[in-house]
Design a protein that fits this description.
Elements (H helix, E strand, L loop, with lengths): L1 H24 L7 H15 L5 H26 L3 H23 L15 H9 L5 H28 L6 E7 L5 E7 L4
Antiparallel strand pairs: 1-2
């Protein structure tokens, strides 16, 4: 059983490395996953339509990253599923890489856009007076995306080699003497 877990976590770590490579090769974009990100990006704009224009523009990129980040929290805290948490954390990192590439594109505007054709980050950075810093800001967000993917891969590798990093569950039980004691136990894969 433990060997199966090692292989599962090892495969999750390799998947993280593959996502990092695809993101690097695609200059921040991962095939197919990019289309899912685009859907959440546009949904963020749609949901924020009643808000001021700047908030609506930020909401696209925010939703693109918040959805996989929220799923990571769900898998880690509520499901106690480390493989699911690792996968969605790596997805969060690739989404951050995509947002970083979009931000860096604000000065050159070479990415194909859908909808109105208005570049969210060119508009926002122009309003904020930091348009000339767009490549640096985008590069920083992209680098944080790589760090996020690396954290996901590291969690998977640690789980493969040291099962104590598995999510823990607190159990309180009464002993035969009538006293209470608290224990933790690993929550297995689902």
């Amino acid at each position: 059983m433990f060997a199966r877990r090692q292989w599962t976590y090892g495969a999750a770590a390799l998947a993280c490395v593959a996502l990092a490579w695809l993101s690097w090769r695609g200059h921040g974009f991962v095939p197919l996953l990019n289309l899912v990100d685009l859907g959440f990006h546009e949904l963020g704009h749609l949901l924020a339509m009643p808000l001021p224009d700047s908030a609506m523009l930020v909401a696209g990129s925010l939703a693109q990253v918040a959805v996989p980040a929220g799923l990571t929290v769900y898998f880690w805290w509520w499901r106690r599923d480390l493989v699911g948490a690792v996968a969605t954390l790596a997805w969060t990192g690739t989404s951050m890489r995509g947002v970083g590439a979009y931000m860096a594109d604000a000065t050159v505007r070479q990415l194909p856009l859908i909808g109105s054709g208005r570049h969210d980050w060119a508009t926002l950075f122009g309003r904020w007076g930091v348009l000339d810093m767009a490549p640096n800001i985008g590069g920083l967000v992209g680098a944080l995306g790589f760090v996020t993917i690396a954290v996901a891969a590291t969690l998977a590798l640690l789980a493969a080699t040291a099962p104590s990093v598995l999510p823990q569950e607190l159990v309180v039980e009464r002993t035969s003497t009538g006293r209470w004691r608290a224990l933790t136990r690993s929550v297995g894969l689902r």
